[in-house]
Amino acid sequence: MTRPFQLSHPVLLLLLLLLATTATARPGFLFTRTTGRCTPDYWGSGVESWPRMVPQTSTVSKVFGSRAYERYRSDLTLLEATARSDDENVFPRLLKQASAALLNSYSRKGFPYTAWEVKTRVIQGLVSERVASRQAQLFSQANEACDLH
């Protein structure tokens, strides 16, 4: 008569522990979102200090001028602009991407826009939804592709 294969308790516990640690090392079906170090989400997270030229409490109207004052709340800060989630509306999307682009222009060598260019393009983008959408897309591409080296 053959005896069925049995595992001792310590071996069984070790096997279960091994399986548990292997399962937690992989995300499985969990959605993980990566954010680059130049995106609005990154700047809004507070992981890195903001450039001194643009404190987090700077208002959009002070940074981008009177046209921005007419379009957005007068007390809206750049930090709030980077954290906005209403991306389906073109003007808030422009502001969100432009805020990150402005921060990148001050803090990332080789970023394709200077601070002056970002500010000018925001004012130009406020002319129409079509222009705002295109400029938001251009800022988004620059923010996603920015070179940190």
Architecture overview:
With 149 residues, the chain is mostly helical. The chain has one domain (40-145). The protein is built from eight helices and no strands. The chain has helices spanning 9-25, 40-45, 60-64, 66-71, 78-82, 90-107, 115-125, 129-145. The radius of gyration is 24 Å and the shape is elongated. The termini are far apart.
Provide a brief overview of the structure:
This protein is mostly helical. The protein has helices at residues 9-25, 40-45, 60-64, 66-71, 78-82, 90-107, 115-125, 129-145. It has one domain (40-145).
Which keywords apply here?
mainly alpha; 8 helices; Protodermal_1; signal
- From the N-terminal CA to the C-terminal CA, the straight-line distance is 70 Å
Question: Which range best describes the helical content: under 10%, 10-25%, 25-40%, 40-55%, 55-70% or over 70%?
Answer: 55-70%
Give the radius of gyration: 24 Å
Order of helices and strands: HHHHHHHH
Overall shape: elongated
Instruction: Quickly count the helices.
Output: 8
